[in-house]
Amino acid sequence: MISQDDALRRDADDPLAHIRQRFYPLSGDQIYMDGNSLGLLSVDAERSILAAVDQWKRLGIDGWLTAEPDWFTLGEQLGAMMAPLVGATPDEVVVTGSTTVNLHSLVSTFYQPEGARRRIVATAHDFPSDVYALQSQIELRGGDPDRDLVLVPSRDGRTIAETDIIAALDDSVALALLPSVLYRSGQLLDIASLAAAGRERGIAVGFDCAHSVGAIPHHFNAWEVDFAFWCSYKYLNAGPGGPGALYVNRRLHQTKPGLTGWWGYLKQKQFDMVHEWEGAPSAGAWQISTVPVIAAAGLLGSLTIFEEAGIEPIRQKSLQLTAYLIELLDALNLTKSPYSFRIGTPLDPAARGGHVAVEHTDAARIVRALKARGIVPDFRAPDVIRLAPVALYTRFIDVWQTAQTLRDIIDAGEHLQGEQGRSLVA
Predict the structure, then answer these.
(1) pLDDT at 421 (0 to 100)
(2) 272: exposed, middle or buried (C-beta count within 10 Å: 0-12, 13-18, 19+)?
(3) 3-state SS assignment for residue 130
(4) Cβ–Cβ contacts within 10 Å for residue 154, how many?
(5) Domain 4-32+311-412 belongs in CATH node 3.40.50.300
(6) How far apart are alpha carbons 157 and 383 in whole angstroms?
(7) Amino acid 411: pLDDT
């Protein structure tokens, strides 16, 4: 039954409902559907940030060893907390840098063009920052991005077929760098099969998991993934500018990082201040510079919520929320004229990430209308309204209200008002 009472019953039966109270609602109790861009602030993250500031105030430089937790090994400690979310051992994950900096660090390590093997495989729907970074890495090795960067095309303008990616992994390829979830459509790629295809062909395969960690369970060790990286400000709710994280499979820990820095040095000898490199025997070797303590504190608090909730229940509710949104769009006839919304996300739960791409010719104006009505979505040109109901703080009644509001906006003709096109920050 599609009704408000049905949505409320779903909320009453939700085992994660109590966690919503740990997050601050936006002013005016707006419905937040943009957690795949920036997660909300939790009481836990706020408390952790304030504690870090207080320790800085009281301890000064002694905080590097006497703060709780100590700042000197904070990146490794946060990595150990995050490891269960990605199916890794604690020494395979470290919190450091930012998403694109970590991409550069990892690709500079594992992209080793030699002879005929010079190409990097990515996808035509990659986030632009990844493509820019890959182009520059190719240029740094004396290559030509027009020749050496292979962007696997989409057959339908929304998704990428794994078979097409695998077909591109030929003898000319030195590395593949792929998204776990396509940022526009929300398609979840089959990481396990892609990693296996790379191993069979002797090609290192890494993954940008910015749109999946915190929403979807990962099993990097079981899948034998070579390396991965992600941000902490989306589903992990660490706050704007929260630090990045990376994973390097243990079998690769003896590889020297392509970009070395002081913070990746063996901790026990870091202050020997010698000029000969001796890296940490873990993913910590891929740290380049000092951990951003205040920014990392938000992640510290947020990860305590994930430890309590568990990533499997989070994924289960996330799938329920996105399925419910898709169900409502169909039940309210929003995919038919005169509403004419289109669902750009795979309907198969196994191929769906944490958000739903709702397409419409007047998407930009509809996004503005949603915001004016107290619902915060996301826009991606030219026609995608991204709606991300986040398991930790989104209710089924929020999803129900969002679908009703989409209908009301079209009924009122608000999608025909105002300027088309995005704001400076979409």
Answers:
(1) 67
(2) exposed
(3) helix
(4) 18
(5) no
(6) 12
(7) 97
Residue 426's pLDDT is: 57
User: Quick one: how far is CA 398 from the chain centroid?
Assistant: 22
Identify the CA nearest to 344 among candidates 360, 330, 331, 328.
360
Which two tokens mark 367?
Answer: 């996004």
Question: pLDDT at position 418, please?
Answer: 74
What are 26's two structure tokens?
A: 């936006």
4-32+311-412 matches 49-308 in fold: no
Angle (CA) 130 133 134, round 5°: 85
The crossing angle, in degrees rounded to 10, of helices 43-59 and 293-309 is 140
The encoded tokens of residue 314 equal 């989070």
> In this structure, are residues 17 and 394 in contact, taking their beta carbons and an 8 Å threshold?
no
pLDDT along the chain (426 residues), means of 10: 91 98 94 98 98 98 98 98 98 98 98 96 97 98 98 98 98 98 98 98 98 98 98 98 98 97 96 95 97 97 98 98 98 97 98 98 96 96 97 98 98 86 58
User: What is the pLDDT at residue 1?
Assistant: 63
The first and second tokens of residue 290, run together, are 């000092």
* 4: helix, strand or coil: helix
Burial class from Cβ neighbours inside 10 Å (0-12, 13-18, 19+) for residue 403 reads buried
- Helix, strand, coil share of the chain (percent; to 5): 45, 15, 40
Residue 119, φ and ψ in degrees, nearest 5? -90, 155
Structure tokens at 124: 């035509």
| 102 class by beta-carbon count within 10 Å (0-12 exposed, 13-18 middle, 19+ buried) | buried
188 and 133 Cβ atoms separated by less than 8 Å: no
Q: Which CATH number fits domain 49-308: 3.40.640.10, 3.40.50.720, 3.40.50.300, 3.30.950.10?
A: 3.40.640.10
Where exactly are the structural domains of the chain? Answer: 4-32+311-412, 49-308
| Number of residues assigned to the chain | 426
pLDDT of residue 423: 65
